[in-house]
Amino acid sequence: xxxxxxxxxxxxxxxxxxxxxxxxxxxxxxxxxxxxxxxxxxxxxxxxxxxxxxxxxxxxxxxxxxxxxxxxxxxxxxxxxxxxxxxxxxxxxxxxxxxxxxxxxxxxxxxxxxxxxxxxxxxxxxxxxxxxxxxxxxxxxxxxxxxxxxxxxxxxxxxxxxxxxxxxxxxxxxxxxxxxxxxxxxxxxxxxxxxxxxxxxxxxxxxxxxxxxxxxxxxxxxxxx
Length: 225
Ligand code: ADP
Ligand code: NI
Fold this sequence. Notes:
Methane Monooxygenase Hydroxylase, Chain G, domain 1; Metal-dependent phosphohydrolase HD sub domain protein; elongated
């Protein structure tokens, strides 16, 4: 009779981390390995504070960006699908595989500016951690690195929203990185889903806001009054 052996969680985590690192090592779109590593550690801290399942949280954090559309040539996000294939190979329970894949599917969905909220506590921890990495000193660094990788200017003072037909038109024509602050980064604090994530975001938000205001003050030489 074939004996059922449960996979060792630590072994699974190490193997998954190794595969993700190989895949994302050279990414310059803001999803490099160190983004994953930071999200992993913040998500685990949130999981501990919130009482979430640390194994599911760590797996989902490691896998959350493997299929990001910005890295794909065909525009399709295959993150959830790919995660399911990888995790099934380790013999994890179908429930665990499904839970992790659902989190990745939810995080990847970015259509029409709709903020997808996570149904499970584990998903909320991973999504909060991902959002926390988009604000604060690191988030600011990532935004300018992303803009640079697309050849975008930091700021374009001549582009005014009211001169364009629609907000979509404005976004398409300007594309300066500083716009990303008002479009997304400064709104993330309100979208945190766990109490500890909200507290954490508060400090990073304040720093981001201060940076934004100082950037514009220096741009207009208003900082040396
Ligand atoms: P996430 O890791 O949260 O899935 P995204 O895929 O939305 O993030 O973006 C990756 C990084 O690039 C984030 O730090 C994000 O703030 C930044 N970024 C995304 N779009 C823009 C943009 N239009 N301008 C500047 N930075 C951007
Ligand atoms: Ni991410």
